[in-house]
């Protein structure tokens, strides 16, 4: 395995950063890397907001319940799934922009955005920086959008903290390959049999350095997803102009 | 800039593969890399279908209009945004799974899936393999799901071709950073002023090695997105159990 892959396999989110800033060259590398991933039909349907204002950082820290690292990271970028730029292009060409409202276009934008962010994440880790995705900006997504003055056809999908790690967590186990990879069809019996992984996670939770607990993956997931998460997300998408159904 | 970032910046999709297979070690590296990215709350909401059956490859080639490379790539993986595994976990714990039907859960799954795929894409390119995303499996997404026997709460998001390049395309320009990165708020005037990029793309289209044309980015985008793409996607999502509105 080459160095790049070894670094990918060693990934663990970093939630504790030093005060050190990134160099201008590092920042430029990260931004260029984020743009270099695949993009559906060249639409490049994302934008990045570089949040430098301390009051904005604090507000995003509160929304996400991730204050210490959202405020303390050298960089906090918000990745925006962005079809607004496309709507201005369509209008400038005298075309109707209503096709941008459908679920397919929204999905294209979300996938483009996630690909861009993961390029930036891996570029960061290739320079031994630490990263943490902040999906918690969707805890109050309307507020997140308002803070950044986001227009129609945009979705603040997640934040990304980047910085020099002050401390690092251990790597968290992943599902066995047999639970995530199937040949030619979705083999329900194998892909959903997580008994082995539950045992592995039970041992992991009992023995890790901090936040030890008696639980397993199924229990954690059942406690987390047994209700509708962020139910206001749908109304937000509609308010942004998306025609969901 | 380190080697990893230089390779990211050199990315261009590959659509022409040699007949060579990947080694078992390469395949294992790719799959492990795909699992090692960030995942929202550890949900790991994706599955990967390794499409090895030639008839299935042919069917996906037809659906996507990408036959030569979908059939010819050493690997063709379909990445599935997958909340079905989660529904089995919830049911096993005696919990209600209806919260999985909302747009937030679907978004979590799509982002997890794209992060996993981009890890695999970059792991491939770190080994000098070529990749191409195949969003075109959504041209007939109900058929794509049927071919793979996908259950409720799953979405075949895209395919990923991987193999040894027989030929490589040149890198396609990306928007200037000023069009994609803004500080503290969404600056509409700057983020949507694509005049300079249109000039760059006009020169690129006129001078590239193959498929030369007199066009620019705005024109290409306007011609592509002036109508609702894949309008059956919404009905498919509903049929899979998602409550969109």
Description:
The structure is a homodimer of 245-residue chains. With 245 residues, the first copy, chain A, is an alpha+beta fold. Chain A has two domains: 169 residues, NADH Oxidase, CATH 3.40.109.10; 72 residues, no CATH class. In chain A, 47% of the residues lie in helices and 13% in strands. The first copy, chain A, has twelve helices and five strands. Chain A has a four-stranded antiparallel beta sheet, sandwiched between helices.
Q: Keyphrases for this structure?
A:
homodimer; 245 residues; alpha+beta; NADH Oxidase; 4-stranded antiparallel sheet; flavoprotein (chains A, B); Nitroreductase (chains A, B); FMN (chains A, B); Flavin_OxRdtase_Frp (chains A, B)
Condensed summary:
Chains A, B: This is Nitroreductase. Two copies of one chain form a homodimer. With 245 residues, the first copy, chain A, is an alpha+beta fold.
- List the chains of the largest interface with their residue counts: A-B, 118 and 117 residues
Largest sheet of chain A: 4 strands, antiparallel
Q: What is the CATH architecture descriptor of the largest domain in chain A?
A: 3-Layer(aba) Sandwich
Order of helices and strands of chain A: HHEHHEHHEHEHEHHHH
Number of domains of chain A: 2
Mean pLDDT of chain A, to the nearest integer, reads 97
Strand coverage percent of chain A: 5-15%
Helix content estimate of chain A: 40-55%
Determine the structural class of chain A based on helices, strands and strand pairing: alpha+beta
Question: What is the oligomeric state here?
Answer: homodimer
Distinct helical segment count of chain A: 12
Identify the strand order in the major beta sheet of chain A.
1-2-4-3
CATH topology-level fold name of the largest domain in chain A: NADH Oxidase
CATH superfamily of the largest domain in chain A: NADH Oxidase
How many DSSP-defined strands of chain A? 5
Whole-angstrom Rg of chain A:
20 Å
Large-scale geometry of chain A: globular
Low-confidence parts of chain A, pLDDT < 50 over ≥5 residues? none
Q: What is the end-to-end distance of chain A?
A: 45 Å
């Amino acid at each position: 395995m080459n160095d790049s892959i070894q670094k990918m396999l060693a990934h663990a989110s970093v939630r504790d950063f030093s005060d050190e800033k990134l160099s201008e060259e590092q920042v430029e590398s990260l931004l260029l890397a984020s743009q270099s991933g695949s993009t559906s039909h060249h639409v490049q349907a994302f934008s990045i907001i570089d949040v430098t204002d301390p009051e904005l950082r604090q507000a995003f820290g509160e929304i996400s319940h991730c204050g210490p690292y959202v405020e303390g990271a050298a960089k906090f970028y918000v990745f925006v799934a962005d079809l607004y730029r496309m709507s201005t292009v369509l209008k400038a060409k005298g075309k109707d922009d209503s096709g941008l409202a459908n679920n397919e276009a929204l999905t294209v934008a979300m996938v483009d955005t996630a690909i861009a962010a993961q390029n930036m994440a891996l570029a960061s880790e290739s320079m031994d920086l630490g990263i943490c995705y902040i999906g918690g900006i969707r805890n109050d997504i309307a507020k997140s959008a308002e803070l950044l003055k986001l227009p129609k056809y945009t979705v603040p999908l997640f934040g990304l903290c980047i910085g020099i790690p002050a401390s690092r967590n251990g790597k968290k186990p992943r599902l066995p390959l047999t639970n995530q990879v199937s040949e030619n069809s979705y083999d329900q019996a194998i892909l959903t049999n997580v008994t082995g992984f539950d045992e592995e996670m039970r041992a992991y939770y009992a023995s890790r350095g901090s936040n030890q607990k008696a639980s397993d993956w199924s229990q954690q997931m059942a406690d987390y997803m047994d209700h509708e998460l962020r139910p206001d997300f749908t109304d937000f998408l509609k308010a942004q102009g998306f025609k969901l159904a």
